[in-house]
Amino acid sequence: MSRKRPILIGIVGDSAAGKSTITNGLVNILGADRVTHVCTDDYHKYDRRERAQLGVTALHPDCNYLDVMELHLERLHYGQPILKPIYDHSNGTLVRPQYVQPREFVIVEGLLGFSTPVLRQFYDVKVFLDPPEDLRRVWKIKRDTTKRGYTAEQVIAELGKRENDSRDFIRPQREQADIVVQFCPPNGIAPEEAGANLNVQLVLRPTIPHPDLSYLVNDARDSSSGVRLELGRDGGRPVDFLEADGNVTAEHAHQLEDAIWQHLPDLRSVHEDQFGEYQDRTETRHSHPLALTQLLVTYHLLRKYSDLGQMPFAPPVAALSRLKNNEQ
User: Which residue ranges form the domains of the chain, and what is each CATH number?
Assistant: First the structure.
């Protein structure tokens, strides 16, 4: 069957919550030629200089063209092109808009992607990134001082200015997500020292069908496995908590990956080395909890792709090349 419409995923979180890391991993997994990436931060009304003059932050809905964002998301949902604004994060300016044609998968990431009912209705999967504030603070200082030309003192001051808007407009969007992702340091480890050893907890809400991982319930008290599934409540609602320790062994991580892929026997087409990579300044590192998070999100995208009767999913050329090289 021919492709009917793109599959849309929303990835929302506060500044430096890890949205780009998750997004870049999904693009790498699915293939850049099959993914359209849209950043909702491009819909800012004011550039950095104007925001400073007005005394507003980019996190406030009134500082963004949410109505235009709604119209564009509707067009993307139905496979139609948009003329998307562009915000240059490197210097805080608004630049020439870009013609965007949706491909098979559309990743929409940014600060306010779940902030209105109209926006939320167009996503097939909604993911919210919810790291502890002390960890996000470390990430933001590291990113903004190395990539955006700020000093550490300027970043800390900006975090203070943004706190009320973060509380009022960004964090409440957590309640709208199908999956909530929280990376956090192991007990007793400072955020700046955790590195690739961050644990992850995934809140899996029954708003979308998740793969059956009930076998993990029996291992919930087995600390040696490094992965657990527990039943619980989040905000008063019943959910599954899928947890992976930062020091989970490759063996246990691969067992969980295999359990997820068993639900997509005809779509397993990417190599495990494509999951879990992230940049730590100039160094590329690997995290098993990040890999499992990316795999679970990929599962939902491919599952929806299959459910809508799309064409069978084949690995991107880059993935085939890496797999061939690894097998030699």
Answer: 7-318 (3.40.50.300)
Strand partners, 241: 203, 230
| Separation between Cα atoms, residue 14 and residue 18, nearest integer Å | 9
Q: How does DSSP classify residue 211?
A: P
Q: Are 185 and 139 in contact (CB under 8 A)?
A: no
In the numeric block, which tokens belong to residue 77? 């949902």
Q: What separation, in Å, do the N-terminal and C-terminal C-alpha atoms of the chain show?
A: 35
Task: Identify the helix (H) or strand (E) that includes residue 192.
Answer: helix 191-194
Q: Which residues contact 289 (CB under 8 A, 6 or more apart)?
A: 183, 198, 199, 200, 244, 245, 246, 248, 276
Close Cβ partners of 204 (under 8 Å, ≥ 6 residues apart): 178, 179, 210, 239, 240, 241, 242
Task: Between 129 and 2, name the one with better pLDDT.
Answer: 129
Q: Which residues contact 56 (CB under 8 A, 6 or more apart)?
A: 46, 62, 63
**Residue 314: pLDDT over 70:** no
Strand, helix or coil at 27? Answer: helix
Return the exposure string of 279-298: e unless at least 16 CB atoms fall within 10 Å of the residue's CB, then b.
eeeeeeeebbbbbbbbbbbb
pLDDT in tens, 221-268: 555 678 889 999 998 999 999 999 988 888 888 888 788 877 766 655
CA distance 295 to 181: 13
Q: Which helix (H) or strand (E) holds 67?
A: helix 66-77
Q: Supply the pLDDT for residue 325.
A: 41
